[in-house]
Amino acid sequence: MTASIPQRIHREDRAVVITWSPEHVSRYPSRELRLQCRCAACLEEMTGRPLLDPATVPHDIRPVTISLVGRYAIRIAWSDGHDTGIYTYELLAEICGCVSCRGAGGRGGALASDA
Ligand SMILES: [Zn+2]
Ligand SMILES: [Zn+2]
User: Fold this and answer.
1) Which of 10, 24, 53, 95 would bridge with 110, disulfide CB 3.0–4.6 Å?
2) Cα angle at 70 between 56 and 110, to 5 degrees?
3) DSSP of 59-75
4) Which domain CATH number covers 41?
5) CA of 82 to the centre of ligand 1 (A)
6) Residue 30 and residue 15 in contact, taking contact as beta carbons nearer than 8 Å
7) DSSP per residue, 9-53
8) What's the chain's average pLDDT?
């Protein structure tokens, strides 16, 4: 899947909403997105082993700031103080839980369980 550049990135308390195109809007529940963090503190780089204990992530976690990283990713600072997480558009497209992505199979829908 080729990663596209979002047209719009919108921050809510409970979710991050990314508009890829008028036909494709992804809604990422905050806590699920926090758990998807791939930074060195959350995921062991060599093995891909998760270092982040989901129990330590508050249920009411929310994104505090979202900043753009180049043309390929966003960086999210979370209300639990974690701000090293970089989410590439490629990853975000991959974990989109919307109906059309889930219907396409593959690894899409990783976030759908929270719905
Ligand atoms: Zn992290
Ligand atoms: Zn989607």
Assistant:
1) 95
2) 40
3) TT--EEEEEEETTTEEE
4) 3.30.2020.30
5) 7
6) yes
7) EEE-SSEEEEEEETTEEEEEEHHHHHHT--STTTB-TTT--B---
8) 89
CA of 24 to the centre of ligand 1 (A): 26
**Does a structural domain hold residue 112?**
no
51 is in which domain, residue-wise?
A: 8-106
**How does pLDDT run across 57-67, given as a tens digit for each residue?**
999 999 999 99
Tell me the residue type at 3: A
CA of 5 to the centre of ligand 1 (A): 22
Evaluate if residue 111 carries a pLDDT over 70: no
User: Ligand 1 center to residue 89 CA distance, Å?
Assistant: 16
Do the domain assignments include residue 115? no
